[in-house]
Amino acid sequence: MRLIQDIKENYKTLSIIGLAKNSGKTETLNYLIHEAKKINLKLGITSTGRDGEKTDLVTETEKPTIYVEEGMIIATGRKTLYLTDAGLELLEDTDIITPMGRIMICRVVQEGEIQIAGPINSTDMQKIIKMLWKYDINNVFIDGAVDRKTVSSPLITDGCIIAAGAVLSRDVKKVVEKTSHIIECYSLPEVEDEQLRKLLEKVDTTAVINKDYEFEKLDVKTGLGNGSKIKNAVNKDTKYVFIDGALTSSLLKNLVDKDGLNYIIILRDGTKIFTEPYTWNNLKRQGMKINVLKKINIAAVTVNPVSPYGYVLRSEDMIKGIKRNTKIRVFDVEKGGEDIDN
C-alpha cells in the first residue's frame, strides 16, 4: 500500500518531525501534498513554528518552500499572508497569537508557494486542528518544529513521519544511530497493567508506586534537577516510577543507578525522552525498563542525504542502516519517493 493511502485510512492527523533543521521535513511535506492531490485528498495544514522560508535563518542557505494546492485549508500567522504567491481566501480569524501574528484560517484558491507559522503550544494546536475540521477536509498535516516534538504526542496526532537528514552527522552510522534511537523511544511498549493505567489517570505529577498499587506523589513539578529526590523516594517495594515530564540522561542515570532494585519507569509517551543514544544504550544494558501510556505511531521515515554544510551522504546507506533496526518504511522523497513494494 502506498504511504498516502495508508495515511488516508489510518492517520487523520499526522505530524512531520525533523530531527534537526534542514533534515528534509519540508521536502517530505511537499511530497505528501503532491501524493494527496493524486487521490483527491483534501488537506488542512499548519505548523508548530515558522516554515517555508526561502532562506534558512541560521545557515543562510536556500530552503525548499511549501507548495500548496487549490482547495487546501491553511492555518497560519497573519504576517505570513504577505509572504506568499499562492491565492488565499480568508475563512476565519482566530484569537490564537504567534510571533507572526494571529492565526488565520484560509482556503487556497490558487496554487503556489507559502510560508506557514502555526501555534507554538499543544493546547493551541489542538484548538487549531478542531477549527480545521470544520472545512470538510480529509486529513490534517502538521509541519513540526525541531524543538517542539511534542506535536507528535498521541494526545495531538494519530501518527508522525520522521525526517532524518545528513545534517545530523558526516558519519552515516551516527545518522542511523540517532534516527534509530528516536524510533525506539517513540515505539516503547505500552503499559499492559490495566489497574496501573486506571491509577495513573488520576496522577498528574511524578509518583512512586509500590507492588500494592499504593503511590506516593512527589513534590516536584518536573524531573529536571530532581533526580536525587526521585531516587531517594524509591525503595525495595517500588514497582513503578511515573515521570510526569521530561526524562533526561541525568535523571535516567539517577534512576537506574539503584543497586538491587527492580522497577519500571513509566512515561506518558516517547516525546518526553531527551537522551543521547550512548547513554540510553548503556543504561539498557544495566537493566533499564521503560513503558509508556501511549506509544507513537510512526507512518514512515524519510531521509535527506544532502547537508547544508556542503557534504552529501549516500541515501542508500542511510535507508539500509535505518531499515536494519525497524520494519517501518524508509525512503528518500527526492529520489522519487517510496517504492511500491517498500
Overview of the structural elements:
Helix content is 26%, strand content 27%. By secondary structure, it is of the alpha/beta class. The chain has two domains: 3-186 and 297-335, 3-Layer(aba) Sandwich (Rossmann fold), CATH 3.40.50.300; 194-292, 3-Layer(aba) Sandwich (Cytidine Deaminase, domain 2), CATH 3.40.140. A nine-stranded mixed β-sheet has the order 6-7-5-2-10-1-11-19-20, sandwiched between helices. A five-stranded mixed β-sheet has the order 13-12-14-16-18, with no helix packed on it. A two-stranded antiparallel ribbon has the order 3-9. Strand 19, helix 9 and strand 20 form a beta-alpha-beta unit. The N and C termini lie close together (9 Å).
How would you state the average pLDDT, rounded?
A: 88
Q: What is the first-to-last residue Cα distance?
A: 9 Å
Strand order in the largest sheet: 6-7-5-2-10-1-11-19-20
Count of runs of 4 or more consecutive helical residues: 9
CATH architecture of the largest domain: 3-Layer(aba) Sandwich
CATH class of the largest domain: Alpha Beta
Helix content: 25-40%
| Count of folded domains | 2
Strands, helices and their partners?
Elements: H1 3-10, E1 13-18, H2 25-38, E2 43-47, E3 50-51, E4 66-68, E5 73-77, E6 87-98, E7 101-110, E8 112-114, E9 116-117, H3 122-132, E10 139-144, E11 159-165, H4 172-186, H5 194-200, E12 207-210, E13 215-217, H6 227-233, E14 238-242, E15 247-248, H7 249-256, E16 264-267, E17 273-274, H8 277-285, E18 290-292, E19 298-304, H9 315-323, E20 330-331
Parallel strand pairs: 1-10, 1-11, 2-5, 2-10, 11-19, 14-16, 15-17, 16-18, 19-20
Antiparallel strand pairs: 3-9, 4-8, 5-7, 6-7, 12-13, 12-14
